[in-house]
Structures are given as structure tokens and as C-alpha cells.
Amino acid sequence: MKKLLCSEYDKTERPVRNHNTTVNVTLLMYVKEYYVIEREPSLILSVWLSLSWMDEFLSWDRAEYGLEMLNIDSSELWRPTIQTMDSKPSGTLRKSCRDHECELKHNGNVSCLSPCTFEVHCHSTNVEWPFDVLDCTLYFSSWLEYASQLNMTAQSNVSKQYLKEKTNWQLLSTDVHTHTAMNYDDYPWISFSFALERHMGVYAVVMTPGFMVVVVSLAVLWMHSASPERLYILSVTCLGHYIYLEYIYWHLDYNTNDVPKI
């Protein structure tokens, strides 16, 4: 069946018999793991990305051949030229996703589920640090087909069915936005947004050393001014202040002008 379907198949042509027909591509994202690089800040996403569309040249009569579906390598099919668009180094899905097989049904429906890794640029304000929230948005767009040739939609919101939660950051919410093209020569695009905040345990790790240094500094004021122990403790607290400020420095976004309230 595969040889019969692909004998005269041209994977460089859009899978429609009428060139005026728009190919509808549906995206669905399953988040598996994520990692936050606070210094950037950026979000590393490990996901399963599902793309599905109809290929009018790859259909058959299931009653005649007794076959409901078959698996076919993605390299043998026409695939939408979709790429990520953000401030991080972007590339086509073929560079971000590993090779895989697609499921082809008798009616020409193609479904491809790919393991992918993306790096997403995030935005945040350091004023409320460490109680700040990261907003990260991942954009997908076609760089060859116009909106009149390719339509991109999301089947649903981001799925967290297979998500492994991290200890430092928790995923608050996700959102999907589909751009509605106003002109036929516009490029279609779709965005996936992620909002993250630190777990409560991280607040204790960040704030406790600072409170301890403050308490020790205040306690020294009650000691006799001529006491040598006071000098020793003051030296230790000065070192503690320096280490704590260095810790904050290396955990703050270096691309912002905001100063934390703490």
C-alpha cells in the first residue's frame, strides 16, 4: 500500500488537488518537562508536538484493501514549513524535533507526533523578586505558505497530562492564541503562553539567609564596643552581606533595569 500511494507522490507540493484550497494544520502540545534559566531568563521546554492535516493524494478505499491506517516516515510526506519565532535562536521544526513516523488514515488524515525541545525567551520584572512571575511565549509560524495556503489552529490548550513538575518553578497557567489573518498575503502564526512562579520552598531558601544576617547585625549593637568578639562577629556579618548580595546578583536577570524591593 505504501509503495502504491507514494509511486507518483510529490512531497514538495501542497497536498491539495485545487491550488486555491487552504491546508488546515492542527497543533496540539503535550508538555513533558521544563527548566528555567533565571539568568537569561528563558524556559527550556521538552514537549510532544502533534501536527495533523488532510492529504488529498494519500487516501484509499479501506473496504477494497482491508486497511484502516498505516505508519509512514515523515521524510516521505509533505510537511508544513513551520518554524519557531522568538528572540532565541529559531529554526524549523525539523531542527528542533527528532525524526519520527506519522500515522496515515485511509481518508488521507495525517497525524505526526514529534518529541521536541524549544528554548523560549521570558519576560519578568525584578521589583517583586523573589515573588516574581515569568511570562514565556512560544510562537509558531509558516515561512513559505501564506494564510491563503496554510491555516494553523490549536486543537485545545497546552496539555499537562504527562508533565513532570519541577521543584523550583511551578507552571501556573497556559494559553493558546491563534492569529486571524486579515489579508491573503499574511503569514499564519500561533502562540503558546506559559506563566510560572517559584515554589514556596524557594522563598525560604532565598529569604532566610538575609534575615539571619540582619538579626546578627542588630544583636551586635547590644555588645560592648570594646569587646573583641564584637569585631569578630562584625567581620563575619560583613562577609555574609557580601555573599548574600553575590547570590542575589547571580540569580537576577541581567537584561533588566528593575531593582528588587528587598
UniProtKB/TrEMBL annotation:
Keyword match Lipoprotein: no
GO molecular function: extracellular ligand-gated monoatomic ion channel activity; transmembrane signaling receptor activity
Neurotransmitter-gated ion-channel ligand-binding domain: residues covered: 5-200
GO cellular component, one term: membrane
Keyword Transmembrane helix in record: yes
Keywords from the named record: Membrane, Transmembrane, Transmembrane helix
TM regions (residue ranges): 200-224, 231-250
PANTHER family (alphabetical): NEUROTRANSMITTER GATED ION CHANNEL (PTHR18945)
Protein name, per record: Neurotransmitter-gated ion-channel ligand-binding domain-containing protein
Organism of this sequence: Anopheles maculatus
